[in-house]
Amino acid sequence: MKDIQSEITKEIAVLSVSESGYTKEINLVSWNGAEPKYDIRSFSPNREKCGKGITLTGTEVKMLLEALKKELNN
Q1: Do 21 and 49 contact (CB within 8 A), yes or no?
Q2: Contact yes or no for 25/41 (Cβ under 8 A)
Q3: Kind of pairing, strands 37-43 and 50-56?
Q4: 12 near 26, Cβ under 8 Å?
Q5: Contact present, 56 and 65 (Cβ < 8 Å)
Q6: What sequence ranges are listed for the domain Transcriptional coactivator p15 (PC4) C-terminal (predicted)?
Q7: Taking burial as the number of CB atoms within 10 A of a residue's CB, which of 14, 45, 51, 55 is the most buried?
């Protein structure tokens, strides 16, 4: 199986911190040297391990933001 390389190119925000110290974060991440994408996932303390997450393009983030604005205004 191919190794997956990731690099956090910009830390955006920590969304939450659990009692165990895991953080849920949104960052810009480059996967295997590709153009960075928005990435939401959980990390163990010191980022030794990461959980499953979701990556979004800039266009997808804009669409998500608009959908959330509509949802939260209802």
Answers
A1: no
A2: yes
A3: antiparallel
A4: yes
A5: no
A6: 20-67
A7: 55
Residue 11: closest CA among 59, 33, 43, 34: 43
Of 21, 67, 29, nearest to 47 by C-alpha is 21
Q: Read off the tokens for 10.
A: 């910009």
The predicted structure's pLDDT at residue 3: 87
- List, in sequence order, every residue forming a beta bridge with 53; answer none if it has no partner: 41
Show the domains of the chain with their CATH numbers. 6-72 (2.30.31.70)
pLDDT at 54: 97
Nearest residue to 61 (alpha-carbon basis) of 32, 34, 26, 31: 26
Distance, CA of 23 to CA of 31 (rounded, Å): 20
- Could you tell me the sign of the dihedral formed by the alpha carbons of 32, 35, 36, 39, in that order? negative
| Residues with pLDDT less than 50, the chain | none
